[in-house]
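Sharing a chain and its predicted structure for anyone who wants a worked example. Both blocks are below, sequence first, tokens second.
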Amino acid sequence: MFSNAQKGAWPERFSLACVDADNIILETVKRAEDSDALILRLYETWNRATDCSIRFGRLMEMAAQCDMMEENEALLQVEGNRLRLHFRPFEIKTFKGAAGAGVRRPARSENKVKIRGLSQDGPRIFCQIGLNHV
């Protein structure tokens, strides 16, 4: 997907979210069905109870655990750009989050990026996204 250069403060490289446990897989990242919130779906793969953190590339103003239909939200405590979580063995969790007030949120028409590469490193998949900006 390509877009013309856009004005904004985005860096050339940006990590949207990073999980600090090898057995927790960040499987889905998408826009919420009913808002501009971000939806993350993660699961535990090694049959182990695990405490982990998700570190976001921007400060988050809100995070909530929800069901797979993105309903029944339970607010969670966000520590700046970090969300601490506990997973039971093989548990699947879905979260809804919103970026902090100081973060520029592109309009839907501006939300286009150029995918530069895809690589796999162990159990995690990393996608480097180059954002065109002025």
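Comments welcome. DSSP finds no helices and ten strands in the chain.
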